[in-house]
Amino acid sequence: QPRSPCCCLAWTVLIGTMNSLLFLLNLLLMFVIFTVVLLPTIVVVYFGFQCHSQVLHSSASYCKSVLDDNSSSALIILGFVIMSPLLVVAMAIYCSLARRLQLLVCCQPYSLALYKGGRWCHRGEGALCCARGCSSQLKAWV
């Protein structure tokens, strides 16, 4: 049965807030995973650019004694070369965690705001917040 307009608005705000928080949680998780996995690339490219005389040319002792322009260029190239496989690893880790935590199934449909008796979820149903009554064959990805 349909909800009243005021109740519908309240439920819409609640569901929109919950979906927005879930979206922010996904972004935070992705940011943390990509930052940790890509840290070697970030460090190598940073030192390469910092010690190259045409870019930042730092006066640090390791730039003068260890890294010249050729080795700085090699670091920059190495950093960009190892970025591709590390991006794949980071995405695989994120997808694995999102699938295990079932984060992509947790978004609630706005039809819960329009009609009473919708399929609201609870924690003890095997997922963090998946909707009741959904087909067990339904998957976010294969």
Automatic annotation (TrEMBL):
Keywords: Membrane, Transmembrane, Transmembrane helix. It comes from Loxia curvirostra. The lineage of its organism: Eukaryota, Metazoa, Chordata, Craniata, Vertebrata. GO terms for cellular component: plasma membrane. This is TMM88 protein. The gene is Tmem88. One of its GO terms (molecular function) is PDZ domain binding. The chain crosses the membrane at residues 21-49, 74-94. It is found in: Membrane. The keyword NADP does not apply. It is a multi-pass membrane protein. It comes from the Eukaryota.
